[in-house]
Amino acid sequence: RKEVEQDPGPFNVPEGATVAFNCTYSNSASQSFFWYRQDCRKEPKLLMSVYSSGNEDGRFTAQLNRASQYISLLIRDSKLSDSATYLCVVAPSPWEYGNKLVFGAGTILRVKS
Amino acid sequence: GAGVSQSPSNKVTEKGKDVELRCDPISGHTALYWYRQSLGQGLEFLIYFQGNSAPDKSGLPSDRFSAERTGGSVSTLTIQRTQQEDSAVYLCASKTSGTPTGQFFGPGTRLTVL
Prior knowledge:
By secondary structure, chain A is mainly beta. Chain A has no helices and eleven strands. Chain B is mainly beta.
């Protein structure tokens, strides 16, 4: 079983739609969680951290369910510019002082007009 | 610049040659990471440096791969006797210590081994 699993998609949605991605992780001791986005042939860029209480940044909402070991990302009012691959990322131990992140393989989102 | 920089941006080499890839992390970032990403695949962790601690080399795929970080700043990833399966984008990332923030990635070096 992979440490971090995501549905590869692609998710094809019209502009204005709401779309949600889930991600599951296997290490129950994982400490920190992130969503990154990666555009085609570009480097990953941090989208948002995921906090236990859930957090929102504009049209994006991230949630963490430690009991079920999954993380979600909700995108409301999708824009064409949201088209990208979304990477679920988990830090398996206290992240403040380093250690490696584990990246999911990514979920492809395509927003169409 | 303010971000992570990598050079070269593209490298084409012949099978069996050695290559060196360079990463300049964000100033003040004590943690530095190397990953590689093959076409259509996820990120594969290679090596991690944290301050003056011994690096975590657990992701290096073979002894042909090595990396060093001089003066706690610039890092060089060396691949000896390159093989075609080494073709990938090699990404460097850095982060500060002491805060649970994410990593910041450089633009990568696209390596093609002919």
